[in-house]
């Protein structure tokens, strides 16, 4: 019998039942990839993060949806940093998390975490035929970013909030996910993120999506520092900074549960 610690942490929120919940499993050495994928499927959260130590302030991190491993996940990175700080007692910051997307630098500022992630600006692109119908909206602008992430721009916050996509159709038309964004009523911009093709109908708050969103809105609004909201039912609150080829995302985290996984 193997026992592994597990924590569930809501990222990009300062309240219970908000933000995006991620499972975090600290490891001393890597498990078999199939076991990690099965744990993520059993958790049935949008992401489960696993990490192993590399040095005094360095870890290697991997992220799994219930269906696949992904190359970058912002909210589970923030959740992992919260575990490293609060549960593992890390005192020296910033820390480095090595990943499939390169080194990710995480610092602390009071109760917030600041994630230094690679920017992923989109390029103008036509959408797959049928995607607008599946989404239930007509794009004013459309882009595609690395990792097959589409970004669709709508006119206003109400249009983003009103979406009720056909997820089965979307899953057949995309390989990863679709960001839908618009100017915010009380913040710089709002968004939602749909990724049924990788096992996530709607992701509550998506750090990787803001690596796409931040360069776009920074250029459009002529601002390097922006306030953002991901207006899912759980609501996510993010501070975003455009640093050229890097993006900094600021957010808080709230612990929900801790326990042990028993694997026979």
Commentary on this structure:
21% of the residues lie in helices and 44% in strands. It has 264 residues and is an alpha+beta fold. The chain folds into 2 domains: 132 residues, Diaminopimelate Epimerase, Chain A, domain 1 (Roll), CATH 3.10.310; 102 residues, Diaminopimelate Epimerase, Chain A, domain 1 (Roll). It has an 18-stranded mixed beta sheet that branches. It starts with a strand and ends with a strand.
How far is it from the N-terminal to the C-terminal residue, by CA? 5 Å
Q: Can you tell me the CATH superfamily of the largest domain?
A: Diaminopimelate Epimerase, Chain A, domain 1
Which structural class best describes the helix and strand composition?
alpha+beta
Order of helices and strands: EEHEEEHEEEEHEEHHEEEHEEEE
The average pLDDT score comes to: 97
The CATH architecture category of the largest domain equals Roll
Concise structural overview:
This protein is α+β, with helices and mostly antiparallel strands and 264 residues long. The chain contains 6 helices and 18 strands.
How are the secondary structure elements laid out?
Elements: E1 2-11, E2 20-26, H1 33-43, E3 48-55, E4 58-64, E5 69-70, H2 74-86, E6 95-99, E7 102-109, E8 112-118, E9 123-124, H3 131-135, E10 141-145, E11 149-153, H4 157-161, H5 167-173, E12 177-183, E13 189-195, E14 200-203, H6 207-221, E15 225-230, E16 236-243, E17 246-251, E18 253-263
Parallel strand pairs: 2-3, 4-6, 11-12, 13-15
Antiparallel strand pairs: 1-2, 1-18, 3-4, 4-5, 6-7, 7-8, 8-17, 9-10, 10-11, 12-13, 13-14, 15-16, 16-17
């Amino acid at each position: 019998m193997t026992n592994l610690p597990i924590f569930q942490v809501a990222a990009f929120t300062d309240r219970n039942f908000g933000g995006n919940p991620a499972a975090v499993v600290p490891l001393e050495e890597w498990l078999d990839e199939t076991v990690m994928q099965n744990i993520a499927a059993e958790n049935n959260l949008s992401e489960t993060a696993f990490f192993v130590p590399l040095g005094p302030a360095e870890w290697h991190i991997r992220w799994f949806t219930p269906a696949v491993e992904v190359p970058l996940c912002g909210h589970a990175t923030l959740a992992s940093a919260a575990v490293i700080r609060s549960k593992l007692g890390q005192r020296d910051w910033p820390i480095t998390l090595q990943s499939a997307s390169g080194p990710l630098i995480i610092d602390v500022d009071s109760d917030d975490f600041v994630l230094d992630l690679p920017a992923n600006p989109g390029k103008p692109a036509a959408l797959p035929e049928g995607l607008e119908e599946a989404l239930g909206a007509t794009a004013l602008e459309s882009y595609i970013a690395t990792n097959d992430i589409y970004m669709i721009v709508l006119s206003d916050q109400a249009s983003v909030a009103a979406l009720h996509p056909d997820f089965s159709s979307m899953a057949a038309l995309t390989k990863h996910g679709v960001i839908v964004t618009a100017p915010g009523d009380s913040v710089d911009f709002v968004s939602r993120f749909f990724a049924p093709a990788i096992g996530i109908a709607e992701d509550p708050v998506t750090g990787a999506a803001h690596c796409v969103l931040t360069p776009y809105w920074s250029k459009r609004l002529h601002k390097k520092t922006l306030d953002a909201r991901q207006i899912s039912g759980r609501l996510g609150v993010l501070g975003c900074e455009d640093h050229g080829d890097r993006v900094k995302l600021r957010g808080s985290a709230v612990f929900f549960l801790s326990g042990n996984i028993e694997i026979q």
